[in-house]
Every structure is written in structure tokens, then in C-alpha cells.
Amino acid sequence: MVILFFALAAIALLARAVQLQVFNTEFLNQQADTRHLRTEKISAHRGSVIDRNGEPLAISTPVDSVWANPQKLVAAVDHVPELAGILNVDPDQLMRRITRSMDKEFLYLKRHLSPEMAAQVLNLKLPGVSALREYRRYYPAGEVAGHLVGFTNIDDDGQEGLELAFNHWLSGESGSKRVLKDRFGRAVENVANIKSPRHGKELRSSIDLRLQYLAYRTLKGAIQKHKAGSGSVVILDVRTGEVLAMVNQPSYNPNDRSQFSAERYRNRAVTDIFEPGSSIKPLILAAALESGRYQGSSVIDTSPGYVIVGPKRIEDPNNLGRVSLTTILSRSSNVGVTKIAMSLEADQLWQTMTRFGLGSLTSSGFPGESAGLLTHYNDWRQISQATLGYGYGVSVTALQLAQAYAAIGSDGEIRPVSLVALDQPNVSRRIISSENALTIRQMMEEVVRPGGTGSEASVPGYRIAGKTGTSWKFAPGGYSEDKYFSIFAGLAPASDPRVATVVIIDEPTGNLYYGGDVAAPLFGNVMAESLRLLAVPPDAALVGAPEGVVQVMSQ
User: Fold this and answer.
1) Which residue ranges does the chain devote to CATH 3.40.710.10?
2) Active-site positions?
């Protein structure tokens, strides 16, 4: 009977084994797969942003995000305090998050941990707890390039700057794979790749990080020296339209999310508009020359030192009398330029300003870029045309003004602004004749020479062409009498311009507030080092230099 019992038991076991391994194989495999096979995301890393020389501006570093299945993790509630300690979160808060998510199978415990910290969590071997490989953005240049590069959110989507403008280019597409997991949720084996990830593409920006550092450092020092509210510097390549540097103050560090506020991270050089003051005068003189009514040798009578337009009296500090166009520019005569602007046809003046890019976007593609403000000539009053001559009633961005000056530097041809490094220059469009552009540059050189309003912008060994500007800030009820924009815009070297640079200082305090006293020295300091870094040969003789040196530099 015992032998018979064991024989029957053996037959029963054999029959059960045959049933499980032959007849019910598909069902049991399906049940096993349901319990242990999982589909996991394969994260794609975001493309890097580099400067024109290959220096990194934004890179993605691998991190791990710890997640859990609350329905399984709740079985190990006694280990939650230990888990909270590793994650550096409040244990009670973590427990509340777990219990509130009992109807879910997925809950992030903490995002973007270092791989070492994630390994500590997994070593606890808690049920339902796993780690997901992701990528976090890191910005090596920090606040130096923060406004330009921008930042991403925690899901690695661009939110500001180049990160947003070129998000479609930089973003990757995640893949997926099927993995076998043990009862603790740890991956045991990669079963199959379902979809391979597509990583983001690298973006080579137009920025030269050397010039960016230089402009940032110099601007920050000037803001501190003059106790100004804010400021911007833009450097454009005249030959291509590429942005070589673009900095603002105050700045922010995109690696520190606690600094993310619109007041700090907006790119003022692109989004903020201002009335350019006298820095618009070279464009007015260009319109005058293009009209055919004026030549470089034309003389304007500014006596008796003022002009009355409607109810407004426009005056110069001194009565300059009969002066040339060059003197009007170098001495920044509001009377002279007002008479010129008033003598031109409104539509001709408006069309010239429009061709210079005023009132329209620069084609940079930067998010939030402002088009400025240039009202149509049909809406002008007599006083509107008069004040336009010295930069009131029109608003521009620093980038727009730099583009307009670059057109003068490129012999009257304007190019779209590019934030991406170009293999070939963008197609240009002629807006004024090359002869008139050269004449304007020669006039602008007198601004920087001794006796001009912008002499502080001079650079030893180089011919500089530029124009100062000082404008009152608009305030409720009219213009403020103690708040200013200090402006300098210029080209270097004047003989064959390589860069166009605009400097804006907003609300300098103290006794110095004119563009020639505040913005011009900053321009000179930035240009002196920038021209050396770009290996631009000097085009002027150094005063007091040995004869041999003078000859070499003049060549």
C-alpha cells in the first residue's frame, strides 16, 4: 500500500508537470512576464551648446531619478525614515506622498540624484523602488553666458534663450527597452531593445566665449562703478552678422534654479527697448546723404543755438554757428540735426530708418525679441520728425542698434543677425550707397577724436568710429529729469570695420551720466582687448611710438 501510494503520487506529480510544461506553457509564461517583464525608457541626452571655437556653454550630465510603486513600497513602511534620510527629505512628508498615491503604480521619490546617491537607495532593496537614468543640464560658463544660453526645466525642455529657440534641434527622442526584474524591482537582464534613442544635435553658437567673458567682466565693473540699475553690451561681426558677445547686468547663474526670476534672466539686449538719443544721429545723416540734398561738405547754420518747433525749444549747449555735418555729429548738435531731419521728406526719412532695421525684428530668432517702435510717417506730427533727429519718439533694442551700425560698417549692406556660427555669411541687402557709408564712418571718427563727445572710446593703435548718446528715461507724466540711458555705439577698426559694438548703461548715478563719460570708456576697454583677441591688425599710428613701430602699425 505504501509503494502504491508513492507510485500514485509520482504519477500525479508527473501529470502535473506535463500539464504545466506542455499544455499551460503560454499561460504561465504570460503570467511570469506580467510579474517580471517591464518596459523601461531609455533617456536621450540633449545636444550640447558650444561657442564658435568649441568651448562648452551647455552640456548634459547623467543623473538618476528614483521612483517607486506605492502599492509595493507601502509594505516596507518601517524603512521609509531610512529612505528619507538618503533622499534628504522629511520622512513624514515622504510617507504622506506614498499613502496619497496608493492608486498609482508610479511615483517619483526624487529627481536628478547623483548615481552614487541613487545606488545607496537601491542598496536598501525596498520593494517597488527603482532608478531611472536621466540627464541634467550643466552650464560651464555660468552667469557669463546665462542670458544668451538660457536654461531648461527639470524635464530637459528649453525654457529660455538658445535652449528654447533651438529646442527642436537640441532635444533628443527617448527610446525604450524590455527588461527582466526580480521581486525587488531590480533589473536582472535586458531582454530586448524596442526603440533606440535619438540623441539631440550639437549647436555651435556664434558666441566667442573669450569676448563674452571680457564684455561681462567689463560691464559688471562699470555697473558697480556708476551704481547703475542695469546695462548691456552687444558685439556683432560686421562681415557676417554673427553675435560674438551679448551680456547683461544684473545677471544670473542658470545652474542655480533659485535665481530664476524674469527680472534676472530676461535678455535685456534683445527684449528691452530704449530711446537711442544722439546715437541715432549717424542714421539721420545717412538719410540726408541718401536724399541727395546733402553732401559730406554741406554746412548747416545752427545760429542762434536753438530752434523752435511748435511749442518746443530745441537747443545746443553753445551756439556753434555755421558748421559742417561732421561737426554736427562730433559736437552732437541737436539744432543742426533737427534742421536736417525737418528738411527731409517724412516718407524718405521713415524708409531709411526702416531699411536700417528700426521697428522690425533682427531675424535672430531669440525668444521674446522686441521689434522696437518706429511709428509710420503718416502718424507723425511736425515735432515727431524733429525729435526723431536726436533719438526721441523712436525706440530700439541694443541688438537693433548694433545691426544698424554694422550696416554702416559693411559699406551700406545690412545682414540678418545670427546666433549660430555661420560657414558662409548671410545674404546682405544694400540700404545705402557704399560712398555714403564711408562718409558717415569718417564723420563718426571725429566723434572719438579729441574735442568730440566720445573721445573716451578711443583705442591706442586703432581708428574708432562711433557716436555717444544720452537720453532721458520716460516716466509717468513725461520724461524724468534725473534718470538716463548712457549709450555708445561704434565700429572698430574704422578703416575696415570688423566689429560693431553697442554699450547701454541704464540709470547711472552720481555726477557722470553722459554717454561720453559712462558708456564710451566701457566701449574703449572692451574694444582694446577684443581687437587683440581677434588678431585685428592696428590701423593707426601710436602717438609717441618709435618711427619703425609707427610705420608697421600704419601699414
Assistant:
1) 209-554
2) 278
Averaged pLDDT for residues 284-311 = 94
Q: Is the peptide bond before 250 cis (omega within 30 degrees of 0)?
A: yes
Alpha-carbon gap, residue 162 to 65, rounded angstroms: 26
The amino acid present at 117, given as its one-letter code, is M
- Which grid coordinates are listed for 134? 536621466
Distance of CA 44 to the CA centre of its chain: 25
Q: Is residue 148 a contact partner of residue 209, using CB atoms and an 8 Å limit?
A: no
- Residues with Cβ within 8 Å of 482's Cβ and at least 6 positions away in sequence, in order, are none
Q: Do residues 346 and 381 lie in contact, with contact meaning Cβ atoms separated by under 8 Å?
A: no
Q: Decide: helix, strand or coil at residue 4.
A: helix
Q: Which CATH class is domain 209-554?
A: alpha beta
Q: Please state, rounded to an integer, the average pLDDT across all residues of the chain.
A: 89
β-partners of residue 218 are none
- Tens digits of residue pLDDT in 457-479: 999 999 999 999 999 988 777 88
pTM of the model: 0.84
Rounded Cα gap, residues 185 and 202, in angstroms? 35
Contact 458, 524 (CB under 8 A): yes
- At the top level of CATH, the class of 39-204 is alpha beta
H-only helix segments in 356-423: 382-388, 398-409
Rounded alpha-carbon distances, angstroms, from residue 262 to 160, 306, 380: 10, 43, 34
Cell triple for 429: 541687402
Measured CA to CA, the distance from residue 507 to residue 510 in angstroms comes to 10
- Span 219-224, average pLDDT: 96
Dmax (CA) of the chain: 137
d(CA 36, CA 24): 18
Please list the residue range(s) of the chain that carry CATH number 3.90.1310.10.
Answer: 39-204
